[in-house]
Amino acid sequence: MKALSSSGSATPDAAPLAAAAERPDAARGAVSAQHLARLRSRFGQDFLWGVATSAFQIEGAVAVDGRGPSIWDTFCRIPGAIVDGSNSDVSCDHYHRLEADLDLIASLGVGAYRFSISWPRVQALGRGAWNRAGMDFYRRLVDGLQQRGIAAHATLYHWDLPQALQDSGGWAARDTALRFCDYAQHVAREIDGIAAIATVNEPWVVATLGHESGIFAPGIRNRATAMRVSHHLLLGHGLALQAMRSSGYRGALGIVLNQSPVHPATDSDADRSRALLEDGLTIRWYMDPLFRGAYPHDVLDHLGSDAPPVEEGDLRTIAQPLDYLGINYYTRSLASASGEPPQHGPQVELTDMGWEVYPQGLTELLLRLKRDYALPPLYITENGAAFRDTIEGGQVHDAPRVRYLLAHIAAAADAIDRGVDLRGYFVWSLFDNFEWASGLSKRFGIVHVDYQNLQRTPKDSALMLRQFLRPCADPVAAPSGLRDTP
Ligand code: FCB
């Protein structure tokens, strides 16, 4: 990964950008070229800009070419598990539309595409035979990116565990970490040209939402199980890293964590100590073993007998040096001892997920990580927002998303100005897609997807991104589907 060259650049006042976003024309997502150029100039030439997706959320084709079922296919069949009763059997049907989708990605002018590999597509049962058709799909994807000059950033585990492995214990079983290691090694050896590989996406979500609250697959509700799962995910990460390195993989290796600064809901001592605990459970529980080789004591004390069994040598395996750390940032979190959900005042903007728009939290988070840990280069591997978009006359004027993205990009620039070694930023998401337990009801894409006919329509946010990245792009040469910004 190349070094960033933006240090020392002057910091233009972010106010004009914010002001531009307030103007009436911004209601249609139009931000002046000058403002985009000023924001862009805060980043070095080598800064990597990308868009992100994950396999289960966009591929569809769940029973095609030898793919085995995943825990999410199973979970979607549980009545009430997915709010709109949808599933991802088709979603964006990306599996069958690869070439056109790659052209669409290229048309945005991005330097990288973050996608995930579906484990059950390349190894139906999570052990034993490899599925050649599945591997070929990802070879075509990576080759297609290379041909278009786009760096392939793959994630190995974005939540779609082969159901057969769940049937033999899932991530609660230590053996799943070993199976994951085999899978990682096979992919790194057999698919050429992947620039960066992240082992696991958001282990906190897998452990806590999948095994403690049970609102995500596999829908288990047991805290001790959740903590075992978190440990085995980290162990699988460390084992996979070792295996990929020793098998000669030459790209960058990392992991992706979801993080939000945790603020106490009030100044009370009780809320403050709750915030510290939540910070421990969400951030330090993952950062400390990865970067300090130990789980945090306060969290271990809190967990008591629910703490996971850790074997001799596990923490050394987990604390492998990383080439990069990916951070997914969406919002801050507010902690209250009563457990009551936060009451937001009317001045607080919320996304369609009910998440507070809080860009300054990104700067705060990055500075805090830099202060507390010896970090490798950082990437924002996901940032974006769901809003209730409407498509009219082939256009989607998603001004709130445009504002959200610009404010967070500015917050990232603020962190760089203050010394954070941030090398890239990926928008979540390229497409509207299957948003897990929210099904097809939440739209995160910068490209609208019509689930009736699967037509893709770039929203104003996609047009903004393209103009941000390629201000001089010749409109005549623009690939079909992209209009010019007004
Ligand atoms: C993250 C996930 C991603 C998407 C966004 C909205 O937690 O990694 O798949 O669902 O949230």
- The percent of residues in helical segments reads 25-40%
**Low-pLDDT residue intervals, each spanning 5 or more residues:** 1-28, 475-486
Q: How is the main sheet built? A: 8 strands, parallel, barrel
Structural class: alpha/beta
Question: Strand sequence of the main sheet, in spatial order?
Answer: 1-2-3-4-5-7-9-10
The gyration radius over C-alpha positions equals 21 Å
Mean pLDDT: 92
DSSP summary: helix tally: 17
Instruction: Give the H and E element order.
Output: HHEHHHEHHEHHEHHEEHHHEEHEHEEEH
* Bound molecule types: beta-D-fucopyranose
Strand content: 5-15%
Cα end-to-end separation: 35 Å
Query: Which outline best applies?
Result: globular
Quick one: how many beta strands? 12
Compact summary:
The protein has 486 residues and is α/β, with parallel strands linked by helices.
Task: Summarize the structure in words.
This protein has 486 residues and is an alpha/beta fold. 39% of the residues lie in helices and 12% in strands. The protein contains 17 helices and twelve strands. The radius of gyration is 21 Å and the shape is globular. Bound molecules: beta-D-fucopyranose (FCB). Residues 54, 57, 201-202, 205, 258, 328, 382, 428, 435-436, 444 line the site of beta-D-fucopyranose (FCB).
